Structure formats: structure tokens, C-alpha cells
Amino acid sequence: MAIQENDPTGPIIAAVALTEADDVVLRAAEPLARRLVASVRPVHAIEPKVGRTPEHTHREEATAREAVTDRFAFDEAKGVTIFPPVVQAAEPSELVCLTAEADAAQLVLTGGGEQSTVRRFLIGSVAERILRRSRVPVWVARGNEPGKVSKIVCAVDLSPPSRTGLAAAIRMARLFSAPLRVVTVIAKERPLIVGSRVVTDYEARVDATWQADFDALLDDFDLDGLSLEIDVRAGKPAPEILESSHEADLIVIGSGGRRAGPWTLGGTTEKVLRASWCSVLTVHHEPGPAQVGKAGR
Question: Tens digits of per-residue pLDDT, 34-90?
């Protein structure tokens, strides 16, 4: 992926739970592998249990490994290389992210997360925990087939993480030959009422400083040949991003580290992930030397 230090020739790590929730992962794996010219490494974690003997764990791992291999057999029949699955007794997000690091993966593919339960909002779904740990892009599949992407929406806020996300969105738009909508949300200040007159400098700020900064952001990227739409909104970021993505099949959003700002995991990114009706690609931004030259090629 663009502006990531992971290997662009590395495999896709497909996180599977051996439940019906795997259906979206299985449907997404083959077309993504073809678009990215990548192999696929399935990963399945067996949740540790107190009192389970090593022998019992070994048998469970062997049974699960066979089941995972069977599920991905159709991809091999279509010419996609499937690496031997990683099946271990471990916490799922930890195993997925450690495997991605060991394989120098270019992408982690996971399902859309658990149903909304009290437990989910206390400790997060497996998908959310993968997002928090992963240092490579994470594609959270939500039913639609990535090979039929009709529109990609990329959320930007002029921060370094959103630049990383935009670079990834441009690459996805080129790979899928899909139109790209760049949406940005400006917090609308509460107006000051003086007598019967409403006083606000919101429009002036949008027209002046913001426009210059946004134009400078886009100028850093190679946009030639793309079908590009700019959507500027006022309000709260997550609801406006979701509203802008009604016709989209994929939302791309850059995330920073350790809750450094409103777009980091725990803020807008998680709200968009939980409420989105389409797939979401999150791209982790690692602070480093400034990028030089046109990006998003």
C-alpha cells in the first residue's frame, strides 16, 4: 500500500473464525488477491481456555487447520496461491497481527466484527482489536464484493494520517477503476447571536484558509486520469462521512497512533467502522520523514 513500509508484494492475511461470518472474508479474498497480485495466508486463532490440555489443544488445531484449508480450496482452484494456514491457540487479534508482521504482509482482511453487545463496547470486536494493533492496512469486509467496487469514499482532515489514507484510496481507485470521492468535514461553530443578527465566520474560514490548505493537500498527489469528486461538509465527522458514503462500496480512512487526534482509533475511525454499511479500509500512519514528490501513484 502507498506510504506504508510493508512489502507491496507481501501476502494478504485473511482472518477467519470458522463461523458464518467468514463468508464475507471468503468472497473478498479472491478478487482482492487478484487486484493486489498477492497470495493469501489464512489465520485462525483458537481462544485459550482454562483447563485445556496440550493434547486437546493439538487436536483442536489440527481439526481447525483442515477446516480452514478446505474453505480456501476454491481460491486455489481459481489460480490464487494460498499459503499454509496459521492456526494456534492465541488471542485472535494478536495472532493475526504477529503473522502479518512475520510475513511482511501488505494487507489484513477481516470480517465486519461482532454484533453490537455489551461485551463488544467494553473491549471491542475482534476487527476493532486488529485495527488497534495492525501496522499494515486493514480491509474490514462488509458483504459487498471488492471486485465490483462502484465508488470509493476517502475521508480526509488535512492531518498526516489522512494523507496516508488518501494515498491508499488513490491506489484503490486505480486498481478497481472506480470513481473517488474525497470527503472532508469542517466542524461548524456555534453562531453568536447579537440581537436579531447571527454572527459567524464559518463561511469565511472555509473560503480562505481551509481552501488553500485543501488545495495544497491535493496538489501533493497524482490525480491524473481519476474520476474525482470533492465533498465538503459541515458538522460532526463520523455522521457526515457515513452520509457521504451512501452509494459507496468502500470507505478509506487513515488512522493515527495511540489516540493522537480526532481521526485516530477510538474516535472517528471506530465510529465509521461500527456504523458503516460497506467495507472499510483503514491505513495506519506511522510518523516519519516527510514524503517527497507526487504520492498515490
Answer: 889 999 999 999 877 777 788 888 899 999 999 999 999 877 777 889 999 999 999
Cell of residue 280, nine digits: 472499510
Domain, as residue range, for 186: 149-297
Domain count of the fold of the chain: 2
Euclidean distance between CA atoms 249 and 277, whole angstroms = 8
Residues 7 and 124 placed together within one structural domain of the fold:
yes
b or e along 107-142 (b: 16 or more beta carbons within 10 Å of the residue's beta carbon)?
bbbbbbbeeeeeebeeebbbbbbbbbbbbbbbbbbb
pTM (two decimals): 0.81
Residue at which a domain ends, from 91, 111, 143: 143
Between CA 214 and CA 207 the distance in angstroms is 11
Q: What's the CATH number where 27 sits? A: 3.40.50.12370
Q: Are residues 244 and 271 in the same domain?
A: yes
Q: Kindly state whether residues 223 and 245 are assigned to the same domain.
A: yes
